[in-house]
Predict the structure.
Amino acid sequence: MNRIERVLERLKGEGISQMLITDKMSIFYLTGVFVEPGERFLGLYINDGGAKTLIVNRLFSVPDTDCQVVWLRDTDSVSQAVAGLADNSSPLGVDKQCPARFLLPIRDAMPRCRLLLASQCVDWVRAVKEPEEQEKMIRASEINDLVMGETAAYIHEGCTEKEVADYLVSRYYAHGCEGISFEPIVSFGANAADPHHMPDNTVVRKGDCIVVDIGCLKDGYCSDMTRTFFFKEAPEEYTAIHDLVRRANEKAESMIRPGVRLCDIDTAARDTITEAGYGEFFTHRLGHFIGMEVHEYGDVSAAFDNTVREGMCFSCEPGVYLPGRFGVRVEDLVLVTADGCRVLNSYPKIWQVIGQDK
């Protein structure tokens, strides 16, 4: 069963026979056609009768495809193009990415057609990685391990967060990556208490904790990992919290297998940190799904009681952040196997002191 057939099967389970997909990455996933539309409309219409039609602005080119193509000029009506393809008397699934400036006129052009949010029918198909996708995810994480090691060895007296970030990005290109999967996070000292701190001109100091959260894009698939280091010396309080966060990470990973609920994985890590008295300082979900995009649909959090399936790939990244002082995060990607999970990152998780004189 191909990808579109799997989406149609899920749509059928929702009582929907047709769908309009506007997420460019989902369109690429389903058709192999990638277009960066900017503010212009891009859509893929599918139905259970075999229709597979791209709606594309004439400004863009489309490679050879087995899709029908409807070409639009800037002055053409998007809503009329969609209405001309869809069954106006049957519910039409739409995805969460469709901008209101297109969605509302489509609704008005098809008054007898009920529009239903059906993103999940694509999202959960994308969430289960095929063997070829899994190999790409594995390779991207192998490169991430290499770059994490090179970054730890590079951090030195007098360097800034920005210098470290620039260095590690250059290493991705040296290893043959297309680029980064997100802007790297490099945080020294108190900056590490901000989970999404962006690198600045802060200079590393002795005793600082250093959070490095990085990811590359390799062969169209993303990686993502975090390690926390200590510069020249490791204060006992810091290392104790690092050990706690690592244990939470390992506790969660130990229970990942098909059939386990995503929310229960989050609870396992969160309870470990809460029982040690730091629950209020673990301020984010345990993880997110990942693939062609670094953040794909699906959370490892209390908000998702969906069960884990073989082939899913997501992050496991507990953290503790003490405002104005320091922060610790330990993150791996995991790939769900038939009877457990494969942790895709092999770079050591135990705390390390770096920057010591050789």
